[in-house]
Amino acid sequence: MAIAIDIQSVTRAYGPIKALDGIDLAIKAGEFFTLLGSSGCGKSTLLKLIGGFDRPTKGRILFEGRDVIDVPANKRPVNTVFQNLALFPHMTVAENIGYGLKLRGLSGAALKAKVEDALDLVELPGFGPRGIAMMSGGQRQRVALARALVMEPGILLLDEPLTGLDERLRQQMRDEFGRLHRRTGATFILVTHNQDEALSLSDRMAIMHQGRIEQLDVPAQFFARPANSFVAGFVGIDTLLKPERIEQHSDGLRAVIGGQSLRLRSPMGSLGDDSLVAIRPDRLRISESLDGADLVLTVVGTTFRGLQTDVHLAFADGQSLVAVVSSDSPSATLAHGARVPLSLLPDAAMLLSGLGMPPAA
Ligand SMILES: Nc1ncnc2c1ncn2[C@@H]1O[C@H](COP(=O)(O)OP(=O)(O)OP(=O)(O)O)[C@@H](O)[C@H]1O
């Protein structure tokens, strides 16, 4: 796939604060790309630079090989759907959607046809004459989307477009983004702090932290090969244990935690003294007997979560992990203090460099 947007060594500083700190990123034409990160990580700043609403302090931004730093926002092949929508409240739905096309000189039947196509695309046929004030929150989101799509941009920027919607609408709109992406073939760049949104929609995504990209990958790789403890925590692998020591055995690395030894998947890159052992909850099994168990831990609590129950299990040193079991299994009602044998599926435990944990969402 051709590279649509090439971001080279981009830094954006506000005085001493580096909102972006040496970002290198190539976004492919036609892909659904997501910038994921918690508040203040720099994702909106990066989107603004791509849209042409701001300039980098250092570095270059190329669109299809052409430097666009001096190209103003309205001359870029980009449309943006902002979090705060910025619809004109005194105009009808159709006037809002047709506004940009009118500025381009379109009028009459041609304008009307384009607006109607856009309304069909976001599944609001016939809503053109309605006032914006008469539309629900989710319908307004779709109008904002239609207004951007009607311009047929090669690149669509979506800045937290689902914030403020209830769960049902979020899911509906999320499906809509996926469908529109397939139908339009445009490059979509989504900014979000919601990992479900990112995972379900993205061809590739970048997790950002303090102005840097911690990992850039296809979604599945963030679970299979998280780059560090920050990334692991961000995608929900939130059991991170501090090992007493790491030992090299003939069959690979092992970590010693609370006096027990765990087999580790070989780590990526170099690791320091701050390395942590991440445990994937989906790769733990509570086993039938103590014979042949990889670990024996003590139940310190259970949390009912509907179809599944979290069983909290502690090591002798007080560190704990979570095993997820079906709520109708006997393990879901294990008594506090029970000794539980666990088996670890391959790659259940991995050694990661310790960047700490992300703040709670
Ligand atoms: N105009 C500005 N002046 C000074 N600092 C700024 C400005 N804009 C952003 N920053 C700082 O740059 C950093 C990144 O901000 P940015 O808005 O890109 O974060 P974000 O990841 O989009 O966060 P959020 O999800 O809260 O919008 C923050 O520390 C922020 O305080």
What features would you highlight for this structure?
alpha+beta; Rossmann fold; OB fold (Dihydrolipoamide Acetyltransferase, E2P); 2 domains; 6-stranded mixed sheet; 8 helices; elongated; binds adenosine-5'-triphosphate
Give the averaged pLDDT, no decimals.
89
> Spans of 5+ residues with little confidence (pLDDT < 50)?
none
Radius of gyration from CA coordinates: 25 Å
Number of domains: 2
Count the E strands: 21
Count of helix runs:
8
CATH fold category name of the largest domain: Rossmann fold
The CATH class assignment of the largest domain is: Alpha Beta
Please provide the ordered H/E string of secondary-structure elements. Answer: EEEHEEEHHHEHEHEEHHEEEEEEEEEEE
- Strand order, biggest sheet? 6-7-8-3-9-10
The CATH homologous superfamily of the largest domain is termed: P-loop containing nucleotide triphosphate hydrolases
Strand content: 25-35%
**Quaternary arrangement of the chains shown?**
single chain
Fold and architecture overview:
- This protein is an alpha+beta fold and 361 residues long.
- The chain contains 8 helices and 21 strands.
- It has 2 domains: 222 residues, P-loop containing nucleotide triphosphate hydrolases (Rossmann fold, 3-Layer(aba) Sandwich), CATH 3.40.50; 115 residues, OB fold (Dihydrolipoamide Acetyltransferase, E2P), CATH 2.40.50.100.
- The protein is elongated and about 80 Å long.
- The structure holds adenosine-5'-triphosphate (ATP).
